Amino acid sequence: MPVLVMKFGGTSVATLDRIRRAAKRVGVEVAKGYDVIVIVSAMSGKTNELVGWVNETSPLYDAREYDAVVSSGENVTAGLMALTLQEMDVPARSWQGWQVPVRTTSAHSAARIEEIPADNIMAKFAEGMKVAVVSGFQGVSPEGRITTLGRGGSDTTAVAFAAAFEAERCDIYTDVDGVYTTDPRVSPKARKLEKIAFEEMLELASLGAKVLQTRSVELAMRYKVRLRVLSSFEEQSDNAGTLVCDEEDIMESNVVAGVAFSRDESKMTLVSVADRPGIAASIFTALSEGGVNVDMIVQNISEEGRTDMTWSCPTDQVARAEKAVADAKAQGVINFHEVIADTDVAKVSVVGIGMRSHTGVAAKMFQVLSAEGINIKVITTSEIKISVLIDRKYMELAVQALHDAFELEKAA
Ligand code: ADP
Ligand code: ASP
Ligand code: MG
Fold first, then answer.
1. Whose CA is nearest to atom 9 of ligand 2?
2. pTM of the shown model
3. Which residues does substrate bind (predicted)?
4. Probe residue for ligand 2, chosen from 11, 109, 154 as the CB with the greatest number of ligand atoms within 8 Å
């Protein structure tokens, strides 16, 4: 039997009624002759509640226990989905990550999937089970402890299963009917894309478009998984949603495919550090050893042998970054006057593989922001993206102005 992977996100399983609706969709695929692996998220809001409980109990929590708690939301949905399917006379069984087992690294709260043996579930399919409902977002470490894959990780579970079981397709059911040129909640003019290239989706996801977890796109690209994003609320059809595919499979595309944004960025500046060879190495080694994921970097003009060094990092790592540079200063590794953290910033990015062959995208982006009176604090570019850091209060304005200027509401 061909295998299909269907993943339902939090809002798609938020109530018993929605679980029933999702189960009906699964039933339709089973009737077509598929063996289905259903990956479920926790009911919407559940994971946030669990994270809140952990933080309240233990602010500097033991990450192993964090994972034990926050992985539990998915188990409830998996059992309920299996029961719902059984009520519909569809032979179904639930599986927690460790039962499969989804083997991961031991990096608690950000573990990576290393291996998913297919034999256990395949044996059940051979016995007549039609649907394996698997808790998304979780796995088991080499030490035998429960791990989680980072927020939004059920997408990655789904793609990893599709690769391991050589599924015909991996369908990601969510609360929007596909991937848009930008988050439709921020820009009413956002347009649904029929297809998007893996590389563009990878950039959009890593720059903040949470419709797919970045790692899931990486895996789909590497293992050539047919990945589709579609709505669990709307009527189903064979070409519904957005297909994430190779760029060769897209006939026409705009120079800029989409605009992404991220609210949880902060800008940090070390004021007055000695401008000498090795200073950047010392600062960023200290940050890296302190577990800080630095994103953008600028070194300001040097005056009288002193300079300012600025970087951006996730807001929840600011305290860690402050500690890392303070420790390095105490050890005499670096010297600076003060460290300033600006947590009221946002990152806005334009993404498109067309930028490889078109010039002027950056100039246009900066002109658009300037015309809106938005000051750019930091800039980074790569082959297919340009990102700027701006004051957070201008984020929506910037996204909409860029969406208009690059005419993303119109198809190429
Ligand atoms: P799920 O719970 O189903 O995993 P998520 O909330 O993780 O759903 O992801 C879906 C959300 O992603 C949408 O509701 C939308 O607000 C947001 N989003 C951000 N950028 C985009 C985009 N470019 N296209 C579609 N949705 C986007
Ligand atoms: N429930 C987890 C989260 O909210 C994983 C997921 O839904 O993908 O992050
Ligand atoms: Mg998600």
1. 151
2. 0.93
3. 47, 74
4. 154
